[in-house]
Amino acid sequence: MRYIRFAFLAVLGIVLISVSLANRGFVTLKLMPDDLAALAGFNFTLSLPLFVVVLGGIAAGLVIGFIWEWMREFRIRREADAKAREVRKLEREVTRLKKKESQGRDDVLVILDEAS
C-alpha cells in the first residue's frame, strides 16, 4: 500500500511540474474592474505566472474547505466530548459502587462477581 501511495505522489508531482512548465506566462490580476477602480480612485494589480494563480486557487480552495468542515463539525465534536465525560463519570461511579458493595466480603467471591 505504501508503494501505491508513493507512486501516486510521484505521478501527481510530475503532472504538477509539467503543468507549471507549460503555463509560465504572466497574467495580470486586478482587484476591481477598470471602471470601478477609476471611480474608487485606486486599483491593485499583480502580475504572476499562470501556474501560480491556478495552484494558488486550488490551495486556497482546500484551505477554505478544511476550515468550513472544521467549523461544521464543531457541534458533533462538542457532543462527543460531553458523552466521553459522561462515560468516564459513570465508570467511576460503577467502580465506587462495586467497592462499596464488596466491603467485608471474601476476595475470591468479589473476583467471581466481577467476572460475571
TrEMBL record:
Lipopolysaccharide assembly protein A domain: residues covered: 44-94
Superkingdom of the source species: Bacteria
Pfam families membership: LapA_dom
Residue ranges spanning the membrane: these are: 46-68
UniProt keyword Cytoplasm, yes or no? no
Q: What is this protein called?
A: Lipopolysaccharide assembly protein A domain-containing protein
Kindly state which keywords UniProt assigns to this record, in alphabetical order: Cell membrane, Coiled coil, Membrane, Transmembrane, Transmembrane helix
A single GO cellular-component term from the record reads: plasma membrane
Coiled-coil intervals, chain numbering? 80-107
